[in-house]
Specification:
The protein is of the alpha+beta class. Helix content is 32%, strand content 31%. The protein is built from two helices and five strands.
Length: 84
């Protein structure tokens, strides 16, 4: 069975990340320290797709920032993802 496609947007809001699911019309806040997401899945499993996405985005942001400090031009990547 194929998973339903969802369109999610991740925004860095300073004290965490906002993950908006345009397909479902939902919005969750994710923090990495302490690890938390406001979605129901995280409350039960202590892990969710929102945290996985934010970890990937945060790592990309860290690498981009590192490149900027080295003086290397970096084109900003779009934080709008489509999941299968």
């Amino acid at each position: 069975m194929k998973a339903k496609e969802e369109t999610l947007m991740v925004e860095n809001i300073g004290n965490g990340y906002r993950v908006t699911n345009f397909t479902k019309g939902s919005e969750y806040k994710v923090t990495l320290v302490p690890l938390n997401c406001t979605c129901p899945s995280f409350k039960f499993r202590r892990q969710c797709k929102h945290i996985d996405m934010v970890k990937r985005i945060a790592e990309k942001e860290r690498k981009e920032e590192e490149q900027r400090h080295k003086g290397i031009a970096v084109e900003r990547t779009e934080d709008l993802l489509v999941l299968d």
